[in-house]
Amino acid sequence: MAAGDVLVLIPARLASMRLPGKPLADLCGKPMIVHVLERATAAAVGPVVVATDSAEIIAAVSKAGGRAVMTRGDHESGSDRVHEAADLIDPERHAGVVVNVQGDMPSFDPGAIAAALRPLADPQVDIATAAAEIRDPAARENPNFVKVVGSPVAVDRLRALYFTRAAAPWGEGPLYHHFGLYAFRRDALGRFVALPPSTLERREKLEQLRALEAGMRIDVAIVDRAPPEVNTAEDLELVRAVMRRSDRQTR
User: Fold this and answer.
1) pLDDT in tens, 77-115
2) Superfamily (CATH) of domain 6-231
3) What is the spatial distance between Cα 62 and Cα 85, in angstroms, rounded to a whole number?
């Protein structure tokens, strides 16, 4: 993809149900949102902007030398916020691809963004995302680890057939943990947010099912690992411990 084709957006809000103030939680001396911003910037695929409804988040991002944009406070999902932000930042629609990086993955591999963009080389793909093989047996049954069921279409690439919190598919073989990184074609993002919530989306509480139920194609890049996501205070402490160990090892 040519320079200017990709816009990377990180939706962030303070009003998390399970961990209020999550984007500003301290991780080794930096707010979590700044860690995500730095990793997304390191991917070097296009400009990176935080999309938020909080002046405090804008201040933290600005202090770190990043860019943030204020969006409405009534969005029901990160995808809705990203859609508004894309139109605010790029009203002339120079960027044909919008990447949505969830703001609660402070240790994600920047290379996952490039991996998620690759399926969009196929013009039949509307949305691309990423997943990693589940190697922890306990995670196979854990509903917080979202699984993608898909058909292989190339090396390290699936065409998504379903996303679920259940252990699926049944039988011998790998299960794949899907995590919060999406690369939307610009028109596909507009179509997606205009759709009403779907039946399976409501049941599984997974908004990507809305796209599948509407007949949109989602392909999945298989990467080496899925980053831990911070949803609770316990998750936050685990990520802090991992970052401290990593920091000590690099000294």
Assistant:
1) 999 999 999 999 999 999 999 999 999 999 999 999 999
2) Spore Coat Polysaccharide Biosynthesis Protein SpsA; Chain A (3.90.550.10)
3) 17
